[in-house]
Amino acid sequence: MELFFEQLPIVFRSLNTGFLQTLKLFFVTLLGAFPLGLVIAFGSMSRFKPLSALVRLLVAVIRGTPLMIQLLIVYFFPGLVLDNPIWGSGESGRFLAASMAFILNYACYFSEIYRGGIQSVPEGQNEAGLVLGMTKSQIFFKVTLLQMIKRIIPPMSNEVITLVKDTSLARIIALQEIIWAGQSFMKGSHGISGAIWPLFFTAIYYLLFNGILTVLLARLEKKLNYFR
Amino acid sequence: MPILEVEQLHKSFGQTEVLRDISFSLEKGQVLSLIGSSGSGKTTLLRCLNFLEQPDAGVIRVNGETLFSAADPASQRMSEIRKKRLHFGLVFQSFNLFPQYTAKENVMLAKRLLARDQADYKARKREIFAAIEAEAIDLLTQMGLKDRMDNYPHQLSGGQCQRVAIARALALAPDILCFDEPTSALDPELTGEVLKVIRDLANQNMTMVIVTHEMAFARDVSNHVIFMDDGQIVEQGMPEQVFGYPAEERTRRFLTRFRDQ
Questions:
Q1: Cβ atoms within 10 A of the Cβ of B88, count?
Q2: Do B86 and A133 touch (CB under 8 A)?
Q3: What does the alpha-carbon distance between residue A151 and residue A7 come to, in Å, rounded to a whole number?
Q4: CB-closest option in A142, A227, A228 to B109
Q5: Residue A136 distance to chain B (closest CA, Å)
Q6: What's phi and psi for A45, nearest 5 deg?
Q7: Does the pLDDT at position A7 exceed 90?
Q8: What is the pLDDT of residue A9?
Q9: Which residues of chain B are modeled with pLDDT < 50?
Q10: Which end of chain B is more exposed for a tag (fewer CB within 10 A), N or C?
């Protein structure tokens, strides 16, 4: 028991560092995937058939294969196949590769949600804007966007919460996120080895963070309840 | 010179001809009613006037200016269509108010956006916005919605929503205001308040084109009536004539059906 309390601060310091990396990957992914998803959504709705077909194929492939494989391909393909290890070998390189894979993967999921959101806004809203002499971009930003956001908040909340947990997949390319940090105490780290309990502790981090997110997202949803 | 001239308009959706050889004209300050059964092409005609559909053939002129000519691609450029649209206002059957804006904001939105095109927009923004707001308040008061200006559409009855939509269209001061079955989505007890507003506008000599199934109203408020069937104008004339002494058998049958209801 005494030993446990001795090890606790060491483990927490390590888990905190790992969780910081988890959070970094989480926020970078959102920051990249929110706008990229919109671009992909517009691409898949393009009236230029070759473009929309290509974009839809991309979305189908990304959604149809595991994120873990995508991570491995993005990270190892340039070095092993192209003989051009663009990511480098350090933690920053792994983070960059993980970010790319996560952003692309989540952008594809977001794009489908956006598309549903855009298409669920009645055509009459667009027509009313046109008749009032608005430009297409004015109609999108002043009329459609907020109605779309209101409609997509529940499915997006789901994705965001899934993303928190999905960041752990980056463990497969040895990104030093929280699972990696917890697991390191099994193999041996900071003079502690064969300890599985740090790994269990990582779950608490996820649980707490997702709890906060759930509350925030519910608050956002409520904020847009002023209109129907 | 008529304010609106439509010449030999044609429109097909795929194989179906929905408008065939539509020609008519309308004088300033007059009210034109379009009547006919569902699917006769009335709404499509209105949508063509508002550039929501592009006719396959024909010409649309307002104040002598050719706004649309199927033979002239230059008249179909998107950038110009946006300006040309402003000759017309359109009130929809289902209102199409913007749900995230209050009644007043609905009325002000388009005008505020259009004000950006003014050269002195940046310098006089506050002044311009104040004028737009004053005008919106004026219009909504005229519509009997003085106490409802800060309500959101979902807090308003259908009749109130439609009156906001009318104010929204009037805010851009269109030459011709079009109505697409403005009372069809309303409970019967709410149609009266909307028809009254339209009647008031007619008394103020607003030029209007109204697609309606309210025959008594059409007869009462219009200067000119067009009866359409199967994409064609079957008969047109003064309301007394079309309703009282219809020349065509099809018109008679249509009107009898309405009287029987």
A1: 24
A2: yes
A3: 47
A4: A142
A5: 10
A6: -100, 5
A7: no
A8: 86
A9: none
A10: C
Nearest CA in chain A to B169: A132
Cβ contacts (< 8 Å) between B82 and chain A: which residues? 133-135
Domain containing residue A141: CATH number: 1.10.3720.10
Predicted local confidence at residue B71, as pLDDT:
86
Contact B63, B175 (CB under 8 A): yes
What the block records as the tokens of A135 is 């430009």
pLDDT for position A37: 96
Counted residue by residue, chain A has a size of 228
Two tokens, residue A99: 């970010």
Residue A149 distance to chain B (closest CA, Å): 11
User: Is residue B233 a contact partner of residue B222, using CB atoms and an 8 Å limit?
Assistant: no
The pLDDT of residue A219: 94
The set of residues, in sequence order, having a beta carbon less than 8 Å from that of B84 and lying 6+ positions away, is B51, B67, B68
Interface contact B100-A131, CB threshold 8 A: no
Residue-wise pLDDT tens digits, A184-223: 888 888 888 878 888 899 999 999 999 999 999 999 999 9
Query: At B209, which helix (H) or strand (E)?
Result: strand B207-211
Q: CB B50 to CB A133 under 8 A?
A: no
Q: Cα A164 to chain center, whole Å?
A: 7
State phi, psi for B38 to the nearest 5 degrees.
-60, 140
Residue B52 sits at the chain A interface (C-beta within 8 Å)? yes
What percent of chain A has pLDDT above 70?
100
Domain range for A81: 2-227
Distance CA B224, CA A120 (A): 39
3-state SS assignment for residue B5:
strand
Q: Is the pTM of this model over 0.90?
A: no
Q: Does B90 touch chain A (CB under 8 A)?
A: yes
Q: With an 8 Å Cβ cutoff, are B172 and A133 in contact?
A: yes
pLDDT, mean over chain B: 93
Q: How many domains does chain A have?
A: 1
Which of A121, A131, A136 to probe by mutation at the B interface, max B CB count within 10 Å? A131
What are the distances in angstroms from CA B141 to CA A105, B165, B193? Answer: 53, 13, 14
The model's confidence at residue A1, banded by pLDDT at 50, 70 and 90, is low
CB contact under 8 A, B154 and A227: yes
Contact between B182 and B194 under an 8 Å Cβ cutoff? The reply is yes
A188 in contact with chain B, both atoms CB, cutoff 8 A: no
Which strands form B65-69's sheet, in the order they lie side by side?
B16-26, B4-13, B57-62, B65-69
Q: How far is A96 from chain B (nearest CA, A)?
A: 39
